[in-house]
Predict the structure of Sugar ABC transporter substrate-binding protein.
Amino acid sequence: MRSRNVASAAIAGLVAVALAACGSNTQTGDTGNANAPTTPLQTTSGGAGGDVGVFTWWAAGSEKAGLDALVKLFNEKYPNDKFVNLAVAGGAGSNAKAKLASDLQNNQPPDSFQGHAGAELLDYIDKGQIEPVNDVIKALGGESVFPKDLLDRLTVEGNIYSVPSNIHRANVVWANAAVLKKAGINEVPKDLKAWMADMDKVKASGVSTPLSVSGTWTQVQLLENVLIADLGVDGYSGLFDGKTKWDSDQVKQAVGDYKKLLSYANTASDGDDWPVATDMVIDGKAAYNVMGDWAVAEFNDKGKKQGQDWTWFPTPGTDGVFDFLADSFTLPKGAKNPGGTKDWLMLIGSAEGQKAFNLAKGSIPARTDVPASDFPAYQQDAMKAFKDNKIVSSIAHGAAVSLAWNADISTAVSKFYASKDENQLVSDLAAAAKKNLG
C-alpha cells in the first residue's frame, strides 16, 4: 500500500519481485478504504444513461482496434449510455497527457481517462483530480480476480484510484524472420554484446538499419531495456528509490551500450509514432525493434504469422524479467456523468471486457480468471512470464516514475539523440533523479 510521503520509494511500482502469487485466486476481503469519498456504484440495468466521454491516446492502428472492441461491448451491455470517444493521437500518450493536464486544470475533466497504473497516477492523486474506485474493484471481485500484488501497487493510503484494463510487457524484441535467416542468425543472443554482433551480421547482409526506433518515448523505452540488462533487477529498481545512483559506473556502461545500439538504428523524428518503427521490421527494412507487446496486433493487422514471418524474444540481458506496465481508467473529480463512468469501469474491468480488449491489443488481462487458452501463442507466453518472471516497472510508460520525472528523462534522452554526449546524458539523468526523488 502506497503513502504519498513515501512515494519516491514506492513508485518503482512492481519492483523486482517474483509474482508467483499473481496466478492465485486468494479470497477477497475489503478492497481499500471503506470510508473513501466516492460516487455510489450504480447497478441500473442498461446503464446510468447519458454521454460517457472517455479520454485515451488509442486513436489509430491496433490500439484503436482494442478500444473499438471495448466500445462495441460497452454499447451492448449499457444501451442507456452513449460512448463519446475523446481520443488524442500520440504514442504513449505524449500529446494526450498535455491536453488532459490542461483540461483538468481548467476543471473540464472527461468522464474517464486512460492512465498508466503506477507512479504516473500519483500526480493526479496529489492534485485531487481523481476519486477512489474501491467499490468498483470490490464489485469486480477484488483480490479473487486481480493479483493482490497488483492491487497493492495501485493503492495509495488505503484507496485505489484506477481500474486496470490490461498488462503489457515492454522488454520485447520483435524480429523479421527472413532478415535474420538471410544474415545467418539462428539463435537468440544471450546479452547485449552478442546482440550487437548479430546486428553487424545484419548490416553485412545488406540491411543498413538493423534496429528501428521512433520518437523520443520509444528511445526512452530502449534505454530502460538497456538499463535492466546492464544493472540487473535490483540495480534497475534501485534507480527509483535512491539505492542505485544514476551516475554510477553501471549506468555509464548502460549509456555507452545505448549509444552503440543507436548507431545501428534509423534516423527518427520526435513525432514519429511506434508503428513507424514496427512497420520497418514488418517490411524487412530493419531486423529488430524493441517495443511493447501491443506490436502483436500490428503484425496481425498486416497479415504476418508468428514463427513464419516474425519472431520475438526478451531484450538480450533481460531474460527472466518482465518489464511491466498497465493501462487503467479513472473516475475524475467533477466528471459530468460519474454513474456512466462507473459503467465504463465495470465493463473494462470485467472478464468479458478484458478478453475482448486484450485479444485485439496484444496485451494480457489484468484479471487472473480469463483462460490463457482463449489467447494466441505470444499472449499465452506473456501470461506465463508474468507469473514466473521477476517484475520491474517501465520508465517510459509511467509505472516507475511520475509524469514530471518522466518528462525530465525524456528531455535528457531527446537531447542525447541529437548530441550523442554520454557524459551529458548521465549528468542530466542524475539531475532529474535528484530533482524528483528530493
